[in-house]
Write a structure and sequence with these properties.
The chain is of the alpha+beta class. It has two domains: 30 residues; 150 residues, Immunoglobulin-like (Sandwich). It has four helices and eleven strands. β6 and β7 form a beta hairpin. Keywords: Membrane, Transmembrane, Transmembrane helix. This is EfeO-type cupredoxin-like domain-containing protein. It comes from Caldiarchaeum subterraneum.
Length: 183
């Protein structure tokens, strides 16, 4: 084989390697869709018996969340900025409604309680193409939804369900976690 044959083979080999590396780089740089977070709802925590994992995201990032209810009670997921304010207002409203003679089911399904929750929602969820302030998942079920974090700050995800803890919420029992949105 002459020297020109060797150099042609070398050039072809180099070109093949360069094209392969470029294709791999393009594949790795193309967004692969939203990051997925899996949360398992238990009594009374996310991914454990109390609390929930800290989730860190970038402003503008969208997360896909898979919520699996591995507990024996219904569980909710909502995102708020002022968790303490929400829980205080809910507690006060429950006491007020009890003083008026309302029973547990009447209180937990009342428009007044729902309005307090809706007022505290900081970021809406996207469920099946529709916006929602919260999602609820029954025991044994799984629900997927997405959420986009546009503003920096610290948020709380929590379960404000009353089942098995009335007059307190599951969040009062420790069922919440932190979301930090970085710039």
């Amino acid at each position: 084989m002459n020297s020109s044959g060797v150099s042609k083979a070398a050039v072809i080999g180099v070109v093949v390697v360069v094209v392969a590396v470029a294709a791999l780089a393009v594949f790795m740089l193309v967004p692969q869709g939203p990051r997925t977070i899996r949360l398992e709802a238990l009594e009374f925590g996310f991914n454990g018996p109390s609390g929930g994992p800290k989730i860190t995201v970038k402003a503008g990032e969208t997360l896909r969340i898979t919520l699996v209810n591995k507990g024996s009670a219904d569980h909710e997921f909502m995102i708020v900025k002022d968790m303490k304010g929400l829980l205080t207002r809910l507690s006060e409203k429950v006491k007020e409604l009890q003083s008026r003679g309302l029973k547990e089911e009447q209180i937990t399904t009342s428009e007044e309680v729902e309005e307090i929750m809706d007022e505290h929602v900081a970021i809406k969820l996207l469920v099946g193409g529709k916006e929602a302030t919260e999602v609820e998942v029954e025991p044994g079920d799984t629900l997927e939804y997405s959420v986009t974090f546009n503003e920096r700050g610290t948020y709380y995800y929590l379960c404000a369900e009353f089942t098995a803890t009335f007059p307190q919420t599951h969040a009062d029992k420790g069922m919440y976690g932190t979301i930090v949105v970085e710039g």
